[in-house]
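Worked Example 4.2. Consider the chain below.
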Amino acid sequence: MTNPLSARETLDREFLEIRAGLLRIAASLDRIDRGDGDVADDQRQTQLLQAIKILETPDKDRAEKLQMLFSLPFDEDWASTFGLLGQTSKSGQHN
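Applying the procedure from the previous section yields the following structure tokens:
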């Protein structure tokens, strides 16, 4: 995707929002670390640490990699899984 703004313009525009997001993430991780118990074996904690590693890379597709990290694999039977087979949509068509 082409960005009509220069890298500098984008940084100027988004720096404060990015900084705030990073501070929220750091504070959340600090709260997890200070909490009782251990989450080292929790898949969500593993995903968060993997996401941080993705952010450290100079790749231009970090957003896509993060989306894939947090996405479920495609399930061809998803409609049945969610009980959507045989329902009628708002347009009156049968799904």
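The two ends are 34 Å apart (CA to CA). Residues 1-37 form one domain. Compare this with Example 4.1 before moving on.
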